[in-house]
Amino acid sequence: MTKIIDGKRISAEIKDELREQAMKFKERGIEATLAVVQVGLDPASSIYVRNKKKACEYVGIRSLSYELAEETTEEELLSLIEKLNKDNAVSGILVQLPLPAHICEKHILDAISPAKDVDCFHPENVGKMCLGEPGFLPCTPAGVVELLKREGIEIAGKECVVIGRSNIVGKPASMMMLRENATVTIAHSRTKDLREVTKRADILIVAVGKPLMIDDSYVKEGAVVIDVGIHRNAENKVCGDVDYDKVAPKCSAITPVPGGVGPMTIAMLMRNCLSTIIDK
């Protein structure tokens, strides 16, 4: 029988654990503060920002909101980031993506202090992750690993295939699974005989960015399938990169969309925020 990996439940458990930690810090007069910066009024971004603020409120992390106009210049945004970098009361900085086209995303993300880069996008933090050094971990890949661990799914020695090579999910997920002693293959749009590659996987992580692309022909019997994608289908219903109805009967475990990886991303963000004050 297929196990449905309930990311909503697991993320709630993690946030409860973090809430207890935050309360203990507050008793010592220590509080984490997350500055959330949004440029423009992209509807999806507004929903994500609102969810992050709600999570902060629940866990006990103070949040500061900077809602900037669409026409904000790159120089103005960099100036705000510099101000937040220097503010000792701010322990984490998050700039909501995507940014308007006239602002260079790399310039902005590189400007955030590595010590406050709770999204783990700064090259210094990415390098630490690759080297296995202590530091922030990228939120979505960290959520994937945490789901597997909390469901008791063994990673070490397993064959893992990651479909997707983005800097946000595919590449870091591959590195993090390697850190957990999986044997990792990265597949992508140029991979030849993709089905033959993915059917080797004990653990298949799908972050390809194409709705319902992965059906049962890509999956071996008994595999664990983690679906990172999130889209709207023709009926405007939320779906993932995986054709859940076709794939689920073939799996030993699978994440649904919604309610799988998505809630874990915010839980891991809260963990990163709280970790900024752990040594104080």
In words, what does this structure look like?
This protein is 40% helix and 16% strand. The chain has 280 residues and is α/β, with parallel strands linked by helices. It has a six-stranded parallel sheet. Strands 3-2-4 form a three-stranded parallel sheet, sandwiched between helices. Helix 6 packs across helix 7. It is globular and about 50 Å long. The chain starts with a strand and ends in a 5-residue tail after the last helix. The mean pLDDT is 96.
Radius of gyration: 19 Å
CATH class value of the largest domain:
Alpha Beta
CATH topology of the largest domain: Rossmann fold
Helix fraction by DSSP (H/I, runs of at least 4): 40-55%
Overall, the morphology is globular
The chain-level mean pLDDT equals 96
* Structural class assignment: alpha/beta
Name a few traits of the molecule:
280 residues; alpha/beta; Rossmann fold; 2 domains; six-stranded parallel sheet; three-stranded parallel sheet; 40% helix; 16% strand
Q: In a nutshell, what does this entry contain?
A:
By secondary structure, the protein is an alpha/beta fold. The protein contains 10 helices and 11 strands.
Sequence-ordered SSE layout with sheet pairings:
Layout: E1 3-4, H1 7-27, E2 33-39, H2 43-59, E3 62-68, H3 74-86, E4 92-95, H4 105-111, H5 123-131, H6 139-150, E5 159-163, H7 170-179, E6 183-187, H8 194-198, E7 203-206, E8 224-227, E9 231-232, E10 238-239, H9 244-247, E11 253-254, H10 261-275
Parallel strand pairs: 1-11, 2-3, 2-4, 5-6, 5-7, 7-8, 8-11
Antiparallel strand pairs: 9-10
